[in-house]
Structures are given as C-alpha cells and as structure tokens.
Amino acid sequence: MHVFVTGASGFIGRAVVAELIAAGHAVTGLARSDASASVVKDLGADVRRGDLDDLDQIREGANAADGVVHLANKHDWTRPEVSNSAERASVQTISDTLAGSDRPFVLASGLAMPGLGRPATERDPSPAVGPDSPRGGAENLALTYAGRGVRVVPVRFAPTVHGEEDHGFVAIVAQAARRRGASAYPGEGHNRWPAVHRSDAARLVRLGLENAPAGTILHAAAEEGVPVRRIAEALADRLGVPATSVPAERLADEILFVGRFLSADVPATSTITRDLLGWRPTGPTLLEDIAAGHYDQP
User: Fold this and answer.
1) What digits encode the pLDDT tens for the residues 197-224?
2) N or C: which end of the chain has fewer CB within 10 A?
3) Going from the N-terminus, what domains does the chain have, and what CATH number goes with each?
4) pLDDT tens across 142-193, in order?
5) Which residue ranges does the record annotate as region Disordered (predicted)?
C-alpha cells in the first residue's frame, strides 16, 4: 500500500513511518521544512513539501495514495482556534478527496474525556462537535464519511505518548519541576492519565490502516490510567527534587496550557481495540521511561 502521512517527521510520525515501511508499505510524508524533509528521507520515505495550510498539497498527496494517515497538528496552545481551524480544514480536504474510494483514512484524535466518572471506551462519542471545539471536531467530521466510501478510522491517542525524545506533556511537567525546584501534582494526585509508548501507538496505527472497518474508533492506551502523583514522584526521583501537592488552580497558573490538564481524571480502556485487532502493547510503561532518564534533560 502507498500511504500518505502528515506529521511524518514528528515524534509519533517517525515511529509510524518506520512501522509502515517495515511492514512493506511505501510512504510519502508531508514535510514543511528542509529539516523535516531530511528526517522523512532518512526514514526511507518519499517527501511531499507542504504544511497544514497548504490544502492543495494535502489534496494531491491523498489523491495519489492508497491510504492516508493524518498525524499533523499545529499544537498552538496560545491560539487554539488556529490549530482547530487548520485541523478541521485538513480533515475535510482529505475526506472529500477519498470519498467514494473505500480507501482507509486513519486520523489522530484525543482520548481525554473528563467527567465520565468511569474509564472512557471506544463506544463513547467524542464530545468535540463543530468547528469551534477541540481539534475542530475533526473526529466527528471524519466519521460522517464512513458511509460515504471512506474507511475512516480515528485513533484516540492517550494524553501521554511517551518514549525517548518525547517533548510532550510529561516533558513540559519535568521542565516545570526543574524551574520550581519541586515536582508538583494537584491535590492528592489520585487523578489518572492514560499512557502509551510510541512504538505501540505506531503499531496500532498500522493495524488500523490495514484491518479496521470503516467507522471504527481505536484507543491507543496501553495503561488505563497512571495516577498523576506517581508521575510527579517518578520525576522527582530522577530530578533530585521533592514531590509536592499544590492546589489544582495554582498548578494551572504555574504550568501554562498543561497544568489544567494535569488536574483531570481521564482514564480510558482499550479492550475493544485489543480484541478487534489483536493489539498487545509491549513497550515500556510511562514510569519505566521516566526511570530510564528520558525526561532528565531540558
């Protein structure tokens, strides 16, 4: 299969491209810069130059492929409306391009669903509806094409996709601990975050691309929920600082754009995903990756 991948040079994207190529697929990755293009080439993939605002390149890349994996996102925490708009436009473009072809379209989505009072499952609909919602409501938009000849497969990634070179939420929390001289957690820290190693996430993307039926929602969650206090304590051990409890609202002020997420209790299961595709995570746990020193350096 020839697969067009957006976000191919990113932390998750690199693992996905390598997984696809190892499985015998040909890959073309979208790259917005010379540096990104070099990364994609080194992985053994072809390059299409463009970014999320270049809808013509996205359209042409999707049209030329047998399937699409959409991982790119602007992640502009200061202007979420910009990220949301770009995400919705790119998903709309890919969906329209693939309509009527029965080709697979795997897209990254979010797994955090606070307020359920139980672990989220693949049967829970995403609460993000409409262009002004997180990610521009792209998951729900894409799913409308499942009955229009697109094999849409949203993959909801755990809030923490971890591993060496991770610069996401846990890395930001580690940076805050260095600045503060303490590794903070909200309240008693019993709230939980799902986690998945990026190698397991990449394998799930490939399995979904190859085998998941149209409209299938997959959960990339190897761990149902790691208590935030345990994350803070593991970071404290590595960084040589104390782990301390702070009020949730204070944490939200101290760690901009991430602190408020740390206070959410968002456990999630992946039982349906595992049973459907035979996905069995084998990578290190989040606490093992912290203990391995992957978050020691700024």
Assistant:
1) 999 999 999 999 999 999 999 999 999 9
2) C
3) 2-160+196-222 (3.40.50.720), 163-194+224-291 (3.90.25.10)
4) 999 999 999 999 999 999 999 999 998 999 999 999 999 999 999 999 999 9
5) 114-139
